[in-house]
Design brief:
Layout: H1 13-41, E1 47-48, E2 54-57, E3 60-63, E4 73-78, H2 90-98, H3 104-107, E5 110-116, H4 120-130, E6 136-138, H5 144-147, E7 151-152, E8 155-156, E9 159-166, E10 169-177, H6 187-191
Parallel strand pairs: 4-5, 5-6
Antiparallel strand pairs: 1-10, 2-3, 4-9, 7-8, 9-10
Length: about 220
């Protein structure tokens, strides 16, 4: 009776090894394609953020460049939690809680934060209640979410954006929406979305990019 449930074909060990070898070739090709796409991300141009956006966080009101906390790169998760909502998006909440410790990003001059349009008091209460370990910032006082096409008359959107700081100037380098955030389950995967990447010497990066031994 148990054999009647759907299952993969049953074969000999030799047949399995042959099928696995064929699949391994495809997996290696996929890894090489992934590396090529990540290399293209490191070559994306960037655009200056000209508006004087202000955000509210645990430290009070801060300008855009303050979100970096002294780091060079900023990865921002756009959380679906508007000022009209009573609770934060459960899907966004589950995603943030499923992420591993991202402290490694700081070793690569990169900070990770969450931004939403809800008032900061709501965001902070949700962070404590849900156990999300990452800092929240409210963009309620500015047009930021609308300018980033993360909010419109229908409500709030979800995704990530990456920014790069030159002195006090902030530049937008990358954005991914909806299924574009799939696979972001490690610090390395997040770094693959940034201009500097993982900063490891196996990467094909522009000349002058910071790089360190891959296994050093």
């Amino acid at each position: 009776m148990e054999k009647n449930i759907p299952h993969p074909p049953i074969v000999t060990r030799t047949e399995w090894e042959s099928a696995r070898t064929a699949l391994l070739a495809e997996e290696k090709a996929l890894t090489k394609m992934y590396d090529r796409v990540a290399a293209q991300r490191r070559r994306l141009p960037m655009v200056k953020m000209d508006k004087p956006y202000r955000f509210i966080g645990a430290e009070g009101e801060i300008p855009f460049n303050g979100l970096f906390a002294g780091q060079r790169q900023l990865i921002m998760y756009h959380f679906m939690y508007g000022p009209q909502n009573d609770v934060g998006c459960p899907v966004c909440t589950g995603f943030m809680k499923s992420l591993p410790d991202l402290a490694y990003l700081e070793q690569r001059d990169t900070r990770f934060i969450i931004v939403a349009r809800a008032l900061f008091a709501k965001l902070e209460a949700h962070r404590h209640l849900s156990g999300i370990p990452f800092p929240f910032y409210s963009s309620f006082e500015s047009d930021f979410n609308y300018d980033m096409q993360m909010s419109d008359e229908r409500g709030e959107g979800q995704g990530i954006s990456v920014f790069f700081r030159l002195g006090d100037e902030v530049f937008h380098t990358y954005t991914a929406l909806q299924r574009g955030v799939e696979g972001l389950n490690s610090a390395q995967a997040f770094l693959d979305r940034t201009p500097y990447g993982r900063q490891q010497d196996f990467e094909e990066s522009p000349a002058g990019w910071p790089q360190y031994p891959t296994y050093g």
